[in-house]
Amino acid sequence: MPFTVTQPAVAAVGNNSADVMAIANSPVMWICAGGVFLVIIVQSLIYMKAARLAAPSVGMTPGELKTSFRAGAISAIGPSLAVVLVAVALLTVFGTPSVLVRIGLIGSVSYETGAAAIAANTAGAELGGPTYTQSVFGLALAAMSLGGAMWMLATLIFTPLLKRGDSKLRQVNPAVMMIVPGAALLGAFSVLSFAEFPKSPVHIVAFASSAAIMALLLLLAKRTGATWIKEWALGIAILLGLTITYFVSAA
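Now predict its structure.
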């Protein structure tokens, strides 16, 4: 059903400049993106310092702490590659600063593009199309940013509440809280993975190949005792999964 605001919005958009990149890559946008990067760098340094201070109290040695930092950094390579592949394709739509902040650092690719597309459609425009103007870009960016802000607000509100529930469950049965986080992660990733199956056989190939490679790498790490395999497993599984999927789709 068409929106009643479509025609007025198109008229307004038609009087706006179609040179979206003039504002998408403007110095102001780069300054804002730089500010976000600065905040994240400072936060990372604070958390790393806090981890070093807390390590002795939980029995972690400096070597174990260093290994955990290295494992986290290496494990981030795989998911980052998947995001980069999509982000490169969106540079011509949102500009480099917006892609770096919204997709590269804060939000998810599926959410950000979906929110931007819905916002553009309400204005009677299409992302990257002839009706995609500066005003539509501003509308899309606002939709993505407000959605991300609500995520952060929800986390701020619900984290203390969930912490109380965690404390009560630990008092009743400490073993439960050893199972619940793992089950929650498994359920979340399962939902995200199985949601891709109906899209195409290629999506199934991507899931099956990466899952099989991950299982083999973990088995190999267990058999050989090579801890570095566990650290690199996620990145290797994603990279090889993408490679296999590419050749299958091209066949």
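Residues 1-15 have pLDDT under 50 and may be disordered.
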